[in-house]
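Regression test attached.
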Amino acid sequence: MSISEEIKELVILRLETLPSDKKISIGSYGEFSKEELIEHVKKEDSIGKKMIEVEMEFLKAFREGIIL
Amino acid sequence: MSIFLITRPEHDDTTHYLSSWCKETIETAQERGIKVIDLNRERANKSEVESVISKVSPNFIVFNGHGSNNTVTGHNNKPIITAGENEELLKSKTVYAISCKSAKILGPKSIEAGAISYTGYDDDFIFLYEPEKISRPLQDETAKLFFEPSKLFITSLIKGSSVFESRKKTESLIRSTIIKMLGSNSDANIVKFLWWDLKHFVSHGDLEATI
C-alpha cells in the first residue's frame, strides 16, 4: 500500500528535528544518521516504512493519551 | 545457587553498546553470590551456549545481540537459539533477550518447550547513541536513556524481584524518562523511540517467577 505524501512529509519533518550528532540503531537493519533515515523514508523502503510506523504509532498513542 | 549465563557479542556498534551496558549487571550478580558465565565476543556462539547449558544448567539467561521473530544471535549474527530447532535448551530457565523481535515467536515457543519465562521485544529494539562516545559507551547520556531500563530489569531479577515486579520497575523508569524528555526542547523528539521499546517490551510464561 502506498503511503500518502502528507504522512511522508510529516515523518521527514519530525526526523529533521532529531539532533545531528546522534545515530539511531534499528536492530538488524543497522545504524543510521537522521539524514540516512530521511532518504529511506523518501524511498519508502523497509527502513523508511519502519520509521513511518514508529512515528505514526507514537502520534496515535499521544493523541489517545496512552503514552503516560 | 543461581547461575547466570550472559552472551555479549561485540561485532558492530549495536552489539558493542549492548555488551557494555550489560557489564555492570555481571558485577551486581557476582556481589550477590550468583555464579556468572560470561560468553563475550567470539565465545557468544551456539556451541558455547549449548555446552554451558548442558554442563551447569544456568537458571537465568540474558541474550544480547541481534535477532528475528524466530532467533537470537551471537557474535557475527550467527544464530544461538532458533525456534523449531533448539528452543528446548531454554527449559526451566528465566530468559531475557535484548534482541529484536525474538519475543514474537521464539518467546512463546520456548515457553511451550518448558522455559519458565521469556522476556524480550516483539519488534525491533531501537536506541539512539552519540558516535563520538563509541569508545566510552557508558558515558553516552543518550544511550543511557535506552539501556538503564534494560539494566534495571536484569538487576531487579538478580536482587530477587519477580519477572512481573521487574517489569513494573522497568516500565516505571521508562515512563518517568518519557515525562522528563517531553518537557525538554532538545530531547522531546527522541521520546517516540523510547515509547516504541516500551510498547514492544513483552514477557511470556510465569511472571511471578524469580531467579
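Expected vs. actual: identical. The CA atoms of residues 17 and 31 of chain A lie 18 Å apart.
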